[in-house]
Amino acid sequence: MLSTPLQVSIFLSGKNQESNDYRKAFVDAFQGGGSGYLAGAPDTGVPVREFLKTPPEPPAVMLASALHTLNIVLVSRDILNDTSMVEWLSRLADYISTLNQQSPETQGLLVLDLDGSLDKFFQMSSSDSWPQSLASESLGEQAVRPVIASLIAIHLALQIVSSGAKMGGKIIFFVSHAKLDGQPFADALSRLIMELPGFAKFYDAQDIPIGSNWREVLEEGVRDSIMIVLRSTNYELRPWCRQEILWAEEYSTPYIVVDLRHSLIEPSSQFNFDRAPTIRVPDGNLYRVVFIALREGLKARMHSRLVEDLFRQNILSRSHTKILPRLPTMLSIKVACADTEQGTQTTIVYPDPQLHKAERLAANAFATSYSGELRLTTPETLMVGGLE
To answer: Residue 129: which of 164, 102, 91, 161 has the closest Cα?
Structure first.
């Protein structure tokens, strides 16, 4: 049975409108649908549980049901009236602190103060292990506070899953754009990202040190990031933009496409942009861009974390496995095969669902042209019957 890479638990008390707004924003962020700023995204597959009263099982049992858990505590006056819930959450904070000392940042705890009740909450709590909390009033205009809180939650989830997958917790956005007509949008997006609490610094060409090998630095930036492609009219005409897309395909980098074009008729593309989510922002909603980019990064790293757990269960051999965090392309298969020793049985694991049958046959034929011992598969395929 496959492990659950990530689950989200939301703790609140009472049904006041403010608590409900935040609760709904968190659910929509991970499970999709919804309305407003974060509307329209599909489900990430992350289970979300909501608790309006003390959970029936102890913290250790709850956290054991997934490899990682993001716990979100919404502190309000209502929760102060539930001493049982406060005590249970205190035990949760202590247990998470103990686990994270053994294996850093594998469990997450986000505490959000909705109405200034946090000091009283801490006074009632028996734990000294609470992480730094957020005050809702620090998240900007009231209308967008639940949105920003949701972005922070996804970012934290991405960090803890990345830590478990031995990929490091730092998250970098690489914004690929043509300066001729994409620079204003890139600048606005940069400002938004840098203003979000806890987010890593926005990556741009201005961060490349003087004297560095420009090509090497850009290639590393694409390989190690979540890429945001600003597809303006001039984007595919620029050699460096085309190169960045090719690198993203080669390294199976998670990326999204922001379509900034306005013409009624657009020429065909040499790139397969249909494999990445495409976003339009006619309403100027830049939160949507960050939101979808984070989700793509989260899905890619949940896949990597799942494969890491298959190593732990001895279902796969770490030394004989290649991980592709996105659906494979011929370029990504070629790179995955390039350093494979001839005659060594190697498995290339990409995310579910499987490719369509014709694509699977072509991909496997291409892989075996490098070595007859190379095969492509997905985690679910491995669990139900082995290789494709």
So the answer is: 91
Please calculate the CA angle 255-257-259 and round it to the nearest 5 degrees.
Answer: 170
Contact status, residue 326 vs residue 300, Cβ threshold 8 Å: yes
Question: What are the tens digits of pLDDT across the range 20-56?
Answer: 899 999 999 999 887 778 877 888 999 999 999 999 9
SS3 for 201-244 is: CCECHHHCCCCCCHHHHHHHHHHCCEEEEEECCCHHHCHHHHHH
pTM (2 decimals)?
A: 0.91
Q: How far apart are CA 166 and CA 170, in angstroms?
A: 11
Strands 48-51 and 255-259, how do they pair? unpaired
Structure tokens, 76: 């309000």
* Residue for token pair 């990556």: 203
For 76-100, how does the pLDDT look when each residue is reduced to its tens digit (9 = 90+)? 999 999 999 999 999 999 999 999 8
Q: What residue type is 268 in one-letter code?
A: S
Joined together, the tokens standing for residue 103 give 């294996």
